[in-house]
Design a protein that fits this description.
single chain; mainly alpha; 3 helices; membrane; Vta1/CALS_N_sf
Length: 105
């Protein structure tokens, strides 16, 4: 009886882990897609420095989330270095923070 309950518990935990990994992978894909979109904007001329920063951030964040998943660690919240005071935009940093919490829960 206890063995069956233990197996059910483990299966539920594994299901939660798989779901979290899928959520984080989708977030990484979203950041990557954003970086591609910013790259396409280069075709229409020079970009503003703020847009270039956001493109670099999107590439970095997608890479960090994927590396974190492979290394089984928490993705670094916020911008490189994890300093939320130097965030590129409050919308991006808060979105990243939510993903970081989701990936660990």
């Amino acid at each position: 009886m206890w063995r069956v309950l233990h197996q059910i518990f483990l299966q539920r935990q594994i299901s939660k882990i798989v779901l979290v990994v899928q959520i984080c992978m989708n977030t990484a894909k979203t950041f990557y897609a954003a970086s591609i979109f910013f790259e396409i904007l280069y075709q229409f001329g020079e970009l503003q420095p703020e847009i270039e920063q956001k493109q670099k951030y999107a590439v970095w964040k997608a890479t960090d989330i994927r590396k974190a998943l492979k290394e089984v660690r928490k993705p670094e919240p916020g911008p490189p270095g994890g300093d939320p005071d130097q965030s590129i935009s409050s919308g991006l940093s808060s979105y990243t923070y939510v993903c970081s919490i989701t990936c660990i829960s």
